[in-house]
């Protein structure tokens, strides 16, 4: 972990707003599906917002309360204050993330940020200071929202005229840094017109906020260039989809709790149990970290997307990879979960992953031996013999596994859990009755 500047206070924000001539402040939060929501207040209202929050009608927010109990309070978090670089500097616009509260000013159980805070409280109760997360969000640039034609035919790490997004990525990175997000590196991904900007790992709540900021920033700068950026998991048939490989680690007393210098894998018992928790609960968590019908078009063998529930050190066909230990880098010991996609709700995803890992630690889950062979090449009978399960193949299957999950119920709470299952069952029902062009092309001429 690195030393960071102390978080901004409400007094700091009031001073910065005056110094920087900020005219409007956007109050941000997310709905149950991780869609960014916002409303603006004038700078003259900011002091009142810090004192008692700002009221709004939550009845039209997906997953929030019905109209008869719709009054909500958005309580701004001053530590998240940042000026928006894509808005004018003169009489500028800033944003803050909010915690959603009830009129009684208690945390609203349908607020995804609260779900993550609750998971972090459990980790602290077990003696862990911090849960560090480093997600790698991939995305595509297209001409517009209706035309998924790639801008280039570039491939992994290409830096040629094929990479039409280089200048756009550069401007996006500069904007992210202005927003307080530490970017480690950026590159063209495997798919045509596919890109990745990697943020440096951070505490889970900050990183969930940063993921939301990252997505809107990428989209805003694409729009500035007359293009469309999408985090859709599988927009192109026959090409790699977009993942969000997620690096996880726990810290205790400022030290990485996953590291053990005497273990053959340099993994502590805590680290092993945490990984075992991810593996045991992966199938029932799938509807959270891969929450769309389209997510399961990505989670198929052959496109670098992991579908087999196993772990490895080098083998990227496994669900979990443990990056190789480098001497002197004990603090970076971590696991990488390769199945989430960048269209998930990061608050709920990080919360359920943390709860699964803590479940493994509390109950002493045993970590199986690593699978270093390419799991895509194993016959189904061989995988069954080795006890290797597979992620759900459709959203419908995933939702029913989640509906039976005590872990996810405890993580989300009954209110949000019931709404999430209801929304996702409806999405699956809407999808499965569609007659697709593939079916018409295949069956209409011959049946």
Task: Describe this entry's structure for a reader.
With 447 residues, the chain is an alpha+beta fold. 35% of the residues lie in helices and 22% in strands. It is built from 13 helices and 18 strands. It has helices spanning 10-19, 46-52, 112-125, 166-178, 204-224, 269-289, 295-298, 346-363, 380-385, 395-403, 406-412, 414-432, 437-443, and strands spanning 22-30, 36-42, 54-57, 71-76, 82-83, 92-101, 130-144, 147-150, 183-188, 194-199, 202-203, 228-230, 244-252, 255-256, 308-312, 318-321, 335-337, 389-390. The strands form 2 sheets. Strands 7, 8, 9, 10, 11, 12, 13, 14, 15, 16, 17 and 18 form a 12-stranded mixed β-sheet that branches. Strands 1, 2, 3, 4, 5 and 6 form a 6-stranded mixed β-sheet that branches. Strand 1 and strand 2 form a beta hairpin. Helix 3 packs parallel to helix 8 and helix 4 packs across helix 5 (204-224). It is globular, with a radius of gyration of 22 Å. The termini are far apart. The mean pLDDT is 91.
Number of strands: 18
Multimeric status of the protein: single chain
Report the biggest beta sheet as strand number plus sense, adding barrel if it closes.
Answer: 12 strands, mixed
Number of helices: 13
Radius of gyration (CA) equals 22 Å
Determine the fraction of residues in helical runs and give it as a percent range.
25-40%
- Report the average pLDDT across residues: 91
Calculate the terminal CA-CA distance, rounded to whole Å: 62 Å
